[in-house]
Amino acid sequence: MKIRNRGLSAVVSAAVLLSSVVPVYGMEEKDETPSEKEEVIYVTLNTDGSVKHTYVVNSFDGGEIVDYGNYSSVKMMNTNDTISQDGDKISISASSSKVYYEGVLEETEIPWDISLRYFMDGKEYSADEIAGKSGNLEIHLKITKNEQCKGEFFEDYALQTMITLDTEKCSNITADDATIANVGSSKQLTYTIFPGKGIDTVISAKAEDFEMSAVSINGIRLNFNVEVDDEELKDKVNDLIDGAVELDDGASELYDGSEELKDGSADLKDGASSLRSGIAELNGGMTDLESGVKAVQEGLDSLDNQSGALVNGSADVKTALLTIQKQLNGISVTSESIAELTKASGQIKKAISDLYDGASALQTNVGYEQYKGVMAENGLDLDTLTAGNDEAITLLNNQIYELQLTLDQIVGVEGMEDQVAYVQQQMGQLQQIVNLLYGSSAAIGGMESYLGEVNTQLTTLTNGLKSLKTSYQSFDTAISELVTTLNGMLGKMSELTKAINVLTESYTTLDTGIGEYTDGVAKIVAGYSKITDGVAALAKGSRDLADGSNDLYDGTAELFDGTSSLCDGAKELADGTDELRRETSGMDTEVDEEIDKILDSITGEGKEIVSFVSEKNTNVESVQFAIQTDPIEKEELEATAAEAEEEPLTFWQKLADLFDE
C-alpha cells in the first residue's frame, strides 16, 4: 500500500494571521533584500460583490525590515516605530519582536470576480431595495476567475465562503451546494471552492422583513495532510487491464469465427447462384418437354381419330372379299366375271398396300426414338434432360449437404435463430426438388417402356400386313396368271374359289387384329393423357422450383450480407478491443502518476508562494485573503447623541475596523 502525505493542515479563518511562528532575527546591517513576512489581503466588497476597498496587513519578525508594495498609504498597527516609504520600498526599524503594518491598495484587481444578485418573488432588487422586503427570496452567488488579475492565485488558492441567514427572518432555506450548520439562531451556509474552480449557485428561502449579515470569503493556499490508499484502485485498474486482454482475445476469436462464417455463406451464395442457373435451364427444358408432350398428345389424338378410317377400310376389304367369295360361289365363271375378278383383285391389292403403308408410317412415327426426335424438334433432348436431372440431383444433394454444414455452424449462435429456420426451410424445399427430379426421370423411363411396347405391337401388325401384302401380291400375280389361264381354262374356277375362301378366312383374322390395334391406340391415347397431366404437373413443379431457387438465392444473399455485416462489426470490435488493450496496458503506472498530479494540483505542492502585493517580495511565508461584503440592513433613524470621547484603539480593534472603513 502506498501512502501519500501532503503538507500541513489547512486553516481557513483569518485567525491564521495571528498564529505563532518561530522568530527569525533580522540582519545587523541594512540591505535591499526583502524580509521574510506573511501577507493578509483584506478586501471589502459592496453588497453586489464588486470591490470597495483593499488593504494589506504585512507581519514580520523584529529587526531591520525591507518590504515592497505600491501602497497609497502605510501605517504601523502595533508599535510606534517609524515606517518610511520610498516609492514602492517600505523600510522599518522595529523595536518589537513582532511587527504589523497596514498598506492601502488603490484600484486593485483581486483573483476572483464575485457577483451577488438578489431576487424577491422573481424580481431582481439591489441590496438597498431588498432590505426589509418579504416573500420568496433568491440569492444568486457566482464566483469566477478574474482574467485582469496577474499571477496564479485563482489556480492555487481555495475559497471558503460563508453566508449567514437569521432564521427569524429566513425560513425554508435551500442551498444545494452548501454545508449548512446552526450557529445560534442563524443558519450558516458554507461553500468550499477548490483551487482553479468557481461556483454558480442559488440560495432560496422564505423571507420576512429581510436583512442579512456580511458575506465572508476567505482565500488560502491549501495544505492538506492527505493519506491515499491507492492499492484497491490499482487492483481495480489491474482487473480492468486483465478484462481488456480477455475482451480483446474474445473479440479476436469472434472475428475469426465470423470470417469463417462469411466464407461459408459466400460458398453457399455461389452454390445457390449455380443452382438457380441450373434450375432455370431445367425449367426451360421442362417447358419444352411440356410443349413436346402436348404435340405427341395431339399426334396420338390424330392417330386415334384415323383409327376409325382404318377399321372401316379393313371392313370394306373384308366385305369385298366376302362379296368375291359369294360371287365365286354363286356364279359360274365367264370371261366377263374373270375380268371383274382381275379388277377386284387389283383393288384389294391396292387396299392391302395402303394398309401396309399406313401401318409402316405408324411404325416409323410411333416409338421412343421417334418420341425423342419430336422432343428434340421442339427444343428438348430427353437424353440431355435425363443427364441434367442426374446432375441436378447430385448438385442439389451437395447443396443440401452444404446447407447442413452451414446449419451446424449457426445453430446455437445468438441472434441467428431466423437464419437457422430459413436454412432448414430451404433444405426441405431442395429435398422436394430432388424428389421431383426423380419423378421426371421415372416419367421419361416409363414413356420409353410404354412406347417400346406400342412400337412392338405396331411392328407385329406391320409384319403381318407385309406378309399379307407379299402373299396377296403373289395371289394377285396368280390371279393375273389365272385370268390368263382361265381364258383357256375356265374349268379351274373351283381352285380360284377355294383360294378366295382361304383369303377371306385369313383376312377375317387380319380384320380382327386391326380392331385390336385400334383398341390399343385408344388405350395409348387414354394412358398418354395421364403422362400429359404428369408432365404439366412436373412443369408447374419446375416453375415453383425456379421460384424457390430464386428465393433461396435471395436468402443466401441476405445471409451473406448479414454475415458480412457481422464480420465487419466483429472486426471493428476487435480493432476497438485491441486499442483498448493497448491503451490500458500501462494504465496502472499512469493512474499512479495521475494521482500524484491531482494531489499536487490540490495541495499546491512544489509551487513557490508569491506575494500578491509585489513580485519583489521573494521571501513570503504565506499569503491569505480575507474578503467581506457590506451587510444588508434597513435604514434606521440615527439617534442624536453626544459624541463620546474617542479612545485609542487596540491592535485587534484596528484589525476589525479594516472591514468598517
Describe this protein's structure:
The chain is of the alpha+beta class. It is 55% helix and 19% strand. It contains 10 helices and 17 strands. It has helices at 127-130, 153-156, 231-330, 335-365, 368-377, 382-410, 417-486, 493-584, 587-603, 651-657; strands at residues 37-45, 51-61, 64-68, 73-76, 83-86, 89-93, 98-105, 112-120, 123-125, 135-145, 157-166, 170-175, 179-183, 186-193, 199-207, 216-221, 620-629. Helix 3 (231-330) crosses helix 9 and helix 4 (335-365) runs antiparallel to helix 7. The longest helix has 100 residues, at 231-330. The two termini are 54 Å apart.
Summarize the model shown.
Helix content is 55%, strand content 19%.
What is the distance, rounded to the nearest whole angstrom, between the alpha carbons of the first and last residues?
54 Å
Bulk shape: rod-shaped
Q: Indicate the low-confidence ranges by residue numbers.
A: 1-29, 637-645
Discrete helix count: 10
Structural class: alpha+beta
What is the residue-averaged pLDDT? 82
Computed Rg: 62 Å
Approximately how much beta-strand content do the residues carry? 15-25%
Q: SSE string, helix = H, strand = E?
A: EEEEEEEEEHEHEEEEEEHHHHHHHEH
Helicity, in percent?
55-70%
Record field, number of beta strands: 17
Strand order of the largest sheet: 4-7-2-1-17-16-11-14-13
Oligomer: single chain
The largest sheet is: 9 strands, mixed
